Amino acid sequence: MSSKREQKNRRIAYYGVLVTLALVASYVEMLIPISVGIPGAKIGLANLVTMIALFLMGWKDAVAISVIRIVLSGFLFGNLFAIFYSLAGAILSLLIMLLLKKLDFGIVAVSTAGGVFHNVGQILFAVFLVENTKLFYYLPILLISGVVAGVFIGWIGGQLILRLRGVFL
Fold it and tell me: Using one digit for the tens of pLDDT, what is the confidence trace for 47-87?
């Protein structure tokens, strides 16, 4: 049986690995030329890491890893506004994902809702920031892209989670 200190060190190592993977995923996603005509529409590769943390480590770890990744990737690849937009989307997305996971929804459903509500959170933040409700016109295409990306990420995440069970605490 491992000591509490070993468990703490292992958890810190998991954080480092998962944050690094999320940063790499964010960078790789920047290199993928996907354009649906809406600024900010992405696949959400870094959400794979959030899903792994949520399902294998717990909600506190998923939130911490997500926030650390958003702040670091904002400073490395974006700007202060990118951090705020990502945090707005992540907060709403994580709340919905936590609720659905607690209600025993599957990984694909949790991921899909996360993708959709990430986009909703960003639109709500943008409308609040620029005080222009016409930004809601972007919402239908963002909802569709959130569903497509969420299903894709959820399926891949489900496969990874099946293979990584037992590795994490």
Answer: 999 999 999 999 999 999 999 999 999 999 888 988 999 99
CB atoms within 10 A of CB 32: 9
Amino acid at 116: V
- Per-residue pLDDT of 50-59, as tens digits, reads 999 999 999 9
The neighbour count for residue 29, using CB atoms within 10 Å, is 16
C-alpha 65/C-alpha 15 separation (Å) is 7
Burial of 95 (0-12, 13-18, 19+ CB in 10 A): middle
% of the chain exceeding 90 in pLDDT: 70
